[in-house]
UniProtKB/TrEMBL annotation:
Catalytic activity: N(2)-formyl-N(1)-(5-phospho-beta-D-ribosyl)glycinamide + L-glutamine + ATP + H2O = 2-formamido-N(1)-(5-O-phospho-beta-D-ribosyl)acetamidine + L-glutamate + ADP + phosphate + H(+)
Domain of life: Bacteria
Originating organism: Helicobacter saguini
The protein's name: Phosphoribosylformylglycinamidine synthase subunit PurS
Main localization category: cytoplasm
Keywords, sorted A to Z: ATP-binding, Cytoplasm, Ligase, Nucleotide-binding, Purine biosynthesis
Length: 177
């Protein structure tokens, strides 16, 4: 059965979006009274699948693997039957809740409670830790330069102190190493 899908990808609210910020500033400089601006991408896909549920799983997989960056972006999938106009709207947050419920079967080690804002970026930094190690140790660059590189490459404004704390906690970095 043929399904028509629409995927809307948006940058998460807490992530810096330089393109949206530049457009907002340009509009304000032209005397338009705009307070907030968000840029989204829409992708239209026709997909052959056995059922809506199967089509959703395929589309969700496409988003996770290629179309969206789940670290800094959210996405919403809308599926429409080519014969009927009934829509099924799902978001990646709902599918993540289901998938995390399935993976919680085995007990995890107890970890101390995270405190402060330094841990806010741990998941993101874990995903790029190999790149961080390579930049820090092979190129011998400082934390301010590393923080600036992260801001430029990923659009995430991270403080030098947060980055330093991450290296000490997670990568067991010692000063002078």
């Amino acid at each position: 059965m043929l399904f028509k899908a629409q995927i809307e990808i948006s940058t998460r609210k807490d992530v810096l979006n330089p393109e949206a910020k530049a457009i907002l500033q340009a509009l304000q400089s032209l005397q338009f009274s705009v307070n907030d601006l968000q840029l989204n991408k829409k992708i239209y896909i026709s997909i052959e699948s056995k059922s809506k549920n199967d089509a959703f799983k395929k589309l969700d997989s496409m988003c996770k693997e290629l179309l969206a960056n789940p670290i800094i972006e959210d996405y919403i999938i809308s599926i429409e039957d080519s014969k009927k106009s009934a829509k099924v709207i799902e978001s990646n947050m709902e599918s993540n809740i289901e998938s995390s419920a399935k993976t919680r079967a085995k007990p995890k080690k107890k970890t101390p409670k995270k405190r402060g804002r330094a841990h806010k970026y741990d998941e993101f930094l874990d995903s790029i830790s190999d790149k961080l190690k390579a930049l820090k140790y092979q190129n011998d660059i400082g934390f301010p330069t590393l923080a600036k590189a992260i801001n430029t490459a990923y659009g995430i404004k991270i403080s030098v102190q947060t980055l330093y704390d991450y290296f000490v906690r997670k990568l067991e970095w010692k000063k002078g190493k």
